[in-house]
Amino acid sequence: MADAGDETAALVGATGGAGTTRLTVELGALLANDGRDVAVLDAAFATQGLSDYLSGRIDPDLTTLLTDERDTPLSAGLVDFSLDDATGRLACCPAVAPFERLARAKTPAAAQALEARIDEAAETFDHVLVDTPPVAANQSVGAVNAASRTVLIAPATTRGRDAVQRTTGRLDDLDVDVDAVVTTRGELSVADAAVPETDAEVTAAPTCLTERSTAAAVATVASVVLDADPSTGDGPGLLDSVGDFVSR
C-alpha cells in the first residue's frame, strides 16, 4: 500500500447508483465548512459525476493528469467548490474526457499514476476523498491501494447488501481491508453509518445541508470514515453555505 497518510479514503460504490459521488461531495463540504482543506479526486470515469457539481472550465481533468500530463502538478486540475463563509477549502479534480482518453486512464500504468496523485494530494490537504467506482477496474484498484482507508457505499437494499458481500470478497483478494460500510437511503445491519432516504427532488439542495438530522448523519459518516468530528453548526453556517447539488 502506498504511503498516503491516515487521512485518505477511497469511498467505493459497492454497486452502481449507490449515491457515492453525492455522499463524497457532501462529506467534503461538511469537513471544509469545519475548517479543513479537502481534496476530492474523481476515479468514477464512466459516470464523470463529480463534474456535475462544478462550474467553469475543467482543463486539465484527472484523466489528463494520469495520461498525457503526468508531470503537471495536481494543483493545475483542481477546481474549488464554492462554499460561502467556509474556513476550509473543498478542491475537486473531476474526470471529463472523451472515450479514447478514458480508455487510456483505465490502464495499469494510469492506475499507478492515480496512486501517485493521491499521495500528492495528501501532502497538501487535510483529507483526500476518492470517489471510487465498483472494484472491477484498474483505477478502483489503484484507489484502494493508495488510500489509507477503504469505505464501501451501498444502498439499503438486498442488492446493496449482496454487493457489500461481493465487494468485500474482491477486496480480500487484493489484501485490502474494509474499514467501514455506509448505507444510503436507509440502514442495513452491516452498516457502520447510514444516510437516511430523502423525498427531495434530485436537483434540490442536499438533505445533509438542509435538515439537522441528516447533517448529523453525515457527521457520523465523517467519524467512521476519517475519525473526524466536524461540527454541524447551531445556526445558519453549514446549512446555508453550499449551493444546489444534484444526486448521482
TrEMBL record:
Superkingdom, taxonomy of origin: Archaea
Instruction: Cite the PANTHER family for this sequence.
Output: COBYRINIC ACID AC-DIAMIDE SYNTHASE, P-LOOP CONTAINING NUCLEOSIDE TRIPHOSPHATE HYDROLASE
Q: What is this protein called?
A: Cellulose biosynthesis protein BcsQ
